[in-house]
Specification:
With 284 residues, the chain is mainly alpha-helical. The chain contains eight helices and five strands. The strands form two sheets. The chain has a three-stranded antiparallel sheet with strand order 2-4-3. A two-stranded antiparallel ribbon has the order 1-5. It is globular and about 60 Å long.
Length: 284
């Protein structure tokens, strides 16, 4: 099951020019999106209150890490194929899909950190929440990886089993985040509440793409294609596209939301400070 250590190398399926280009272009778009988001988030730290700058720093690290890994994923994809005849065929080199899981094991816990940081919860509550979320995130990724590297049709049942096991911490994370974000609305500035409500929906919708993409890459046809069979490889194509789109939204898009929440809460701090200064007695 763990042969190739995450390398999709057992006979890369033949792809049409369109199929190869769709994946290659979405990888290119992801690299650009993550890189642009990193620059924006790092440069924007000075525009928020000091207490929210760590959230933007972590968010910038998330997209920087993702930018690097998608650069490597794209390079591996291009190295695994060569153009010939009616489309693209495997070169014999491996497509290293482990880069994505290496990215997730680093960035998903950091996503939890940036969210908790911008919410500014009580210290004891923040520690408890982060501990639960980080452990659940690690379990989710560790349980999903064995299923991801299965590359033969006879491993379909095992892939489904690993996917189901990974779904338990996956849904736990979504549940906890939804509940905690909802609870935090009462303590957040009015200007930030709408943005936090949007953040809840972005988390729910974006994260829902991951199991869908996982399922598309685990159909019998997709597994036959992974094994080098002469079948339609659309499942593999949409697996890569789905993961890339979800990552762009969950990391770069969510990072922008973190920025806007931090800006809104910083404005509340400034207004509060102005209000206090205008009501303080004049010094003779």
């Amino acid at each position: 099951m763990f042969e190739s250590a995450g390398l999709l190398a057992a006979g890369m399926p033949d792809l049409s020019v369109l199929q190869f280009s769709i994946v290659d272009n979405i990888f290119s778009m992801t690299v650009a999106t993550m890189g642009a988001a990193a620059i924006f988030l790092f440069l924007s730290r000075s525009s928020v209150d000091d207490s929210y700058r760590p959230a933007l720093m972590v968010s910038g690290l998330v997209v920087t890490i993702a930018c690097y890994h998608y650069f490597m994923i794209r390079a591996s994809w291009q190295g695994a194929y060569t153009l010939g005849g009616a489309g693209y065929t495997g070169t014999g080199a491996a497509f290293n899909d482990f880069y994505r899981y290496a990215d997730w094991i680093l960035t998903v816990p950091l996503l939890m950190v940036e969210l908790v940081a911008v919410l500014r919860l009580e210290a004891s509550k923040a520690r408890s929440l982060l501990t639960r979320l980080v452990i659940a995130a690690a379990l989710m990724i560790a349980l999903g990886y064995p299923g991801e590297v299965i590359s033969t049709p006879d491993g379909w049942a095992a892939r489904v089993a690993w996917g189901a096991a990974s779904s338990v911490p996956f849904f736990y994370i979504l549940f906890v985040l939804w509940v905690e974000l909802t609870k935090s609305l009462e303590t957040q500035p009015v200007a930030a509440r709408k943005l936090i409500e949007i953040a809840r929906l972005v988390l729910l919708i974006t994260w829902a793409v991951y199991p869908i993409a996982y399922a598309m890459g685990g159909t019998m046809t997709a597994l036959q294609a992974k094994a080098g069979g002469s079948v339609d490889a659309s499942g593999i194509v949409w697996l890569q596209v789905g993961y890339a789109i979800a990552d762009m939204t969950a990391k770069a898009g969510f990072g922008l939301l973190i920025y806007f929440i931090a800006r809104a809460k910083s404005a509340g701090v400034e207004n509060s400070a102005v209000g206090q200064s205008t009501t303080s007695p004049a010094i003779a």
